[in-house]
Amino acid sequence: MKIFTLMAAATLLALGSGFVHAELKQGDAAPSFTLRDTGNRLVLSKSVIQGKPLLVSFYFAGCEPCKKELPELQKLFDKHGSAVAFYLVSTDKEGADVALPFVKNLGVKIPVLCDKYSDAAKAFGVNKYPSIFIIGTNGALLFSANGYHEETIAQIDQVLGTLH
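User: That's the sequence. What structure does it adopt?
Assistant: Structure tokens below.
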């Protein structure tokens, strides 16, 4: 029996790296995460959402759709940033050295978190970039979108408008 249990555990571990999380749906509890910002300070999602709803957008440097979306998110940040916490989450393995210049070159000033090992991205089931999630102060997912689409920005603006 112990051998079977060990084999099952080993199989689960081997499969774990390829595990695909079920797609999050509106109303689901959003995964919590702890990531470092570009100043090497820890940011805990649970702490952020105690004060404000949270918008997180996963991206990586060089992502062409992200280049289109990030400036649009900056406009939403300028409009809603006092009522909603915004964070960009870079999945670049090189961390802030690559993540920060990419957004600065686009004129984006939204705070950046580094997810060098894609742990948060995996927890959210990110499989397409950019991916955006809006989380309410109760920790529930209010909105999500994968990939860049112009109409998504209007939808995000509408959701954010209801939060303040």
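The radius of gyration is 17 Å.
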